Amino acid sequence: MNLLGGGWAVTLTDGKLSAHFDLEEFLVSEIAARRGIDNTPTPEIVENLKRLALALEDVRMLLGHPIYITSGYRCPALNVAVGGSATSAHPYGLAADFICPGFGAPLDICTAIAAAGIVFDQLIHEFGRWVHFGLAIGAAEPRRQVLTARFADGSTLYEPGLLKVAA
User: Fold this and answer.
1) 56 in Cβ contact with 18 (< 8 Å)
2) Residue stretches of the chain with pLDDT short of 50
3) Segment 12-22, tens digit of pLDDT
4) Model-level pTM?
5) Could you give the angle at the alpha carbon of 121 between the alpha carbons of 96 and 116, nearest 5°?
6) 8 Å CB contact between 145 and 122
7) DSSP helix/strand/coil, 32
8) Which of 63, 85, 109, 110 gives 20 to 30 Å between its CA and that of 7?
9) pLDDT computed for residue 102 by the predictor
10) What does pLDDT average to over the chain?
11) What's the DSSP call for residue 149?
12) Radius of gyration for the alpha carbons in the chain, expressed in angstroms and rounded
C-alpha cells in the first residue's frame, strides 16, 4: 500500500500495522470524505499508529474478540471538524475509539481494560456508545486516566471513573 500526500509516501507492504489491524481502519472517516479533508498520515504518525495497534492487540487478547475501530487517526482539520478536543491524542495517531460487541458493552470493556495490566494514558467510557483508548504523547509517562464522558446539550462532560449508563 502506498499513501501519497504532501510530497511524501508511506509504504506498507500489506497495509498491516499489527497482526489484526490494518492502517486503513484507523484512517476511514465519513466526515473527511464528505468535507474533502485529506486524512493521510505522515510517516511519524504511521509509526505512532503501529504503537497504538500493538497496544490494541493486548486489548483484543484480553477481550478475546475482534475490535472494531470507529475513529482512529484524525488530522488536525478533521479533529476540528468532528469537534475533537484540542488536546486529543487522535491527531498524533495515538488514540482510537472502538467497540467490541463480542465481548460486551463499552462499560464492560472499560472495566476489563482498567483492571488489566495494559498500558494506556487515557481510557474513556463514552457513556454507553464506545471506548476511547489513548496512549501517552511523546515520552510522557502514561497517566492511566479513567473517565466517563456524558453528552448533554451539545457539550461533553468528563467525570473521573467508570459510571454506569442510566437505564
Assistant:
1) yes
2) 1-11, 167
3) 557 899 999 99
4) 0.88
5) 90
6) yes
7) helix
8) 85
9) 98
10) 90
11) E
12) 16
* The residue to which cell 511524501 is assigned: 8
- Contact assessment for residue 160 and residue 149, using Cβ atoms and an 8 Å cutoff: no
The number of angstroms, rounded, from the C-alpha of 95 to the middle of its chain's C-alpha atoms is 3
**Torsion on CA atoms 113, 136, 158, 84, rounded to nearest 10:** -120
90, 89, 110: which is closest to 39 by C-alpha?
A: 90
Cα diameter, the chain: 51
| Helix spans in the chain (H) | 23-27, 30-35, 43-63, 76-81, 106-115
> d(Cα 19, Cα 33) in Å, to the nearest integer?
27
Q: How far is CA 6 from CA 31, 54, 90, in A?
A: 20, 27, 20
Cell (9 digits) for 53: 495497534
| Cα 117 from Cα 119, distance rounded (Å) | 6
Q: DSSP secondary structure string, 77-110?
A: HHHHHTT--TT-SGGGT-EEEEE-TTT--HHHHH
User: What is the rounded (10 degree) CA torsion for 125, 128, 130, 136?
Assistant: -10
